[in-house]
Amino acid sequence: MLILKLAFRNITHAGLRSWLNVFVLSFAFVMIVMTEGLYDGMLQQVKDAIIDSEIGGGQFFQKNYDPYDPFSIENSHSKIPENLQNEIKNGNAAAVLIVSAAIFPKGHVQSALLKGIDPMQKIVKMPTWLLKDSDTASIPGLIGSRMAESMGLQAGDYLSIRWKNINGTFDAADVRIVEVMNTDVQSIDRDQIWVPLNSLQKMYRAPDEATIITLKKNISFYPSGGPDWAFKNHDYLLKDLNNTVQQKKTTASFMFILLLGMALLAVFDTQVLAIFRRRKEMGTLMALGMTRWNVIMLFTLEGCLLGILALIAGAAYGIPLLAYFARTGLNVPQVAGQAGISIGAVLYPKYGLQLYVITSLILFVSVVVVSFLPTRRITKLKPTDALRGKIA
Biggest alpha carbon distance in the chain? Predict the structure, then answer.
């Protein structure tokens, strides 16, 4: 208890030097928690958007379908198995047929994907009901805002498309854009046109066939897909997203190390300077009966108190600040969407208790180690030399 009182008194008597160390450490603590919370929030927000708008509770892929191989699309269609047909009729799944096509916007030609989906489906959050159009003279089409911007299209425009059916015959038709949907998920937006499933099956000469079967979110029972269909769970479907966020976290960790290193360097310098300036004090304490290890404990404890005060200070101004950002969110620049991250205009950070605890432990242990290292020289200190102002 005596050592604790001495350590606390020395911290408070050091004045501005101590409080500067506390501020630098607390700033590093708050910045690390804030940045980690941004990444956690981004990951969760993008996951929720993709699950709601595209993958639901998981997807069945036709056995030839490879989303990374555009040449696989031509052979990626099969009859929907009876058990999956029943799930679709019961509202637990939705079928999607994907067909490669060429489109001719503004007199140019460009490749795109035609995706057929049931207009009345309730599995994914897309305004597919708009595809239930009474105008039979043209095919109703739904596109995303990125697609519309890149092609210069808007609702009401007509777009000529050309495709090759399963018999190898080319055909063409006009698609009328019924709506431009705003979505954060780029994988249902760029270079693709959504049309009614029945229309696309007729155009492709592939009745009752599909490429993907999407299950309802939080479905309790996973039906069998048979030999032509392979089930893909969230681990597979979100693998790219998890890898992207993990890479960004790894890059950000270098900034954490730099920030924390600067804060710990300030503590280290303070300890070295304190040991140099307080030689006579150490000699006096040892002459009064304090052992070398008690003196080492005193200086290390002073560093620990700096870490504790930094955590308290960081919590004092950091928690209200982080809570404000978690409630109001942060505006995301448009370049984030161009970087391939499906995120909305506002990012809401996510801060959990585990993040606070782990960051606090890392900061505290680092401060203890850095505070202890300079005190090793005290083990060789002689009280008589210390009283004369010498140190080994």
Answer: 103
- Asked if residue 313 has pLDDT above 80, the reply is yes
Please tell me the least confidently modeled range out of 56-70, 110-124, 214-228, 322-336.
322-336
Calpha distance 390→201 (Å, rounded):
91
203 Cα distance to chain centroid = 39
What is the DSSP secondary structure assignment for residue 216, as one 8-state letter? P
* Of 307, 300, 310, residue with least CA distance to 373: 300
| pLDDT tens per residue across span 279-303 | 777 777 777 777 878 888 888 888 8
pLDDT at 15 over 90: no
Rounded to whole angstroms, the Cα distance separating 33 from 274 reads 30
Structure tokens at 128: 């597919």
In angstroms, the CA 37 to CA 245 distance is 12
Highest mean pLDDT of the ranges 188-202, 235-249, 283-297: 188-202
Q: Is 198 within 8 Å of 108 (Cβ atoms)?
A: no
Confidence of residue 70 (pLDDT cuts 50, 70, 90): confident
Mapped to the 3 state alphabet, what secondary structure does 278-311 carry?
CHHHHHHHHHCCCCHHHHHHHHHHHHHHHHHHHH
Strand boundaries in the chain, DSSP class E: 59-62, 78-79, 93-104, 110-117, 139-144, 158-164, 170-181, 192-196, 209-210, 212-215, 229-232, 330-331, 346-347
In this structure, what are the phi and psi dihedrals at residue 227, rounded to the nearest 5 degrees?
-70, -25
- Cβ count within 10 A of residue 317: 13
pLDDT at 375: 75
Pair 9, 303: CB distance under 8 Å: no
The whole-angstrom separation of Cα 134 and Cα 176 is 12
Handedness of CA 357, 359, 361, 364 (dihedral sign): negative
Contact between 32 and 259 (Cβ < 8 Å): yes
- C-alpha span between 299 and 307 (Å, rounded): 13
Q: Which of 5, 195, 212 is nearest to 113 (CA)?
A: 195
**Helix (H, G, I), strand (E, B), or coil: what is residue 334?**
coil
* Range 127-142 average pLDDT: 82
Closest CA to 157 of 131, 134, 180, 135: 180
- Contact, 180 vs 189, CB < 8 A? no
